[in-house]
Amino acid sequence: MAIGIDPTVDFAFKKMLGSPEHTRVTIHFLNAVLGGVSRITHVEILNPILDQEAEDDKLSILDVRAQDDRGRWFNIEMQTANQPGLRQRLAYYAASLYVGQMHLGDDYHDLRPAISICVIDALLFPSVPDLHLDFRLRNGRHDLVLTDDLQVHFLELPKYNHPHLPAGATALEKWAYFFRNASRMTPEEIGRLLADPVFLEAAGVLEMIAQSPQEREMYEARLKFERDQNWRIKAARDEGRAEGLEEGVAKGIEQGIERGELSGRIRVLQSLLGLPESPLSELAGLDAKQLAHLATQLQGQLRDRR
To answer: Is residue 95 part of a domain?
Structure first.
C-alpha cells in the first residue's frame, strides 16, 4: 500500500529532515546538496518539532535549522510555490545565521559558513535546466571568490521530470525523485528502487506520520494551509493580471479617444485653411504625439492668417 504522505508538505519535510532521531537522513540530504569530498558526518538539529508546540501552533512556519561537525549553520526549508520575496528571505536567513554567531569579544575568523537550502516545487529560474542552483559571493567578471561563508541553494523539483529513475542517478537526483514520488510508492518500492537504506528510513518517517492520529492531523492541517496559501497567491496574481489588462484596455480607450479628437481637429483646421483634408486612414498611421504636433502646426498657420 502506498505511503500516502507527501514529503513536500512542510510538516512531513521537517519530521523527515529535522528529527534528532533521524539525523542520518539529514546528513545524507546535506551531503547530496553540498557535494564535495569533505563529507558531513554529524549534525545537530537546533529546532526539532516538540509535541507541545505542535499542539499549540499547527500553522507555524516549519523549517529545519542544524549545525554540522564543521560548525556550519544550515536553514533548510520546503516551499510549494514561488512566493514574493522568497529569494531575499533565504538570503536574509543565511545572513542572520552568519551575523548571529558574533558575540562580544569574538573574532571574525571564528565565523562559520551559513547556508540556506530551499527545496521548491516551483520554478524560480526557468531559463536554465539545472535542478540544483548554488549562489555564493563571487565576482562574475573574473570568477573570484570573496567568501563561501554565505550560500543559498535551490532544488527546483519541476526540473526533475523523469518518470523512472535513470541508471547512475546521483544522490541529489534520488532525493528529487523521492520528493516527487514517495507518496505514491510503498516503502518496499522505495527501498528497492533507490537502493540506499537512508531512503527506507525517510519512508519510515512518512509511514509514522500516516499511522499517528496526532501527526496525521498536523500533516492534514499543513496540507490544507499550503493549498489555501497557494490558492491565495494564484488568485492575487490572476487579479493583478486582470487589473493590468483592464488598465491597459482603459488606457487604450483613452488613447483612442484622444487620437480621434486630434484627427478630427486636424481635418477641421485643414478645411478652415482651404487645404485638402487628410484621409482618416493616413491619420491613423500617426501616433498621438505626431497628431498633436500636426494639429499645433495647423493651429499656428490659422493664427498667422488672422
So the answer is: yes
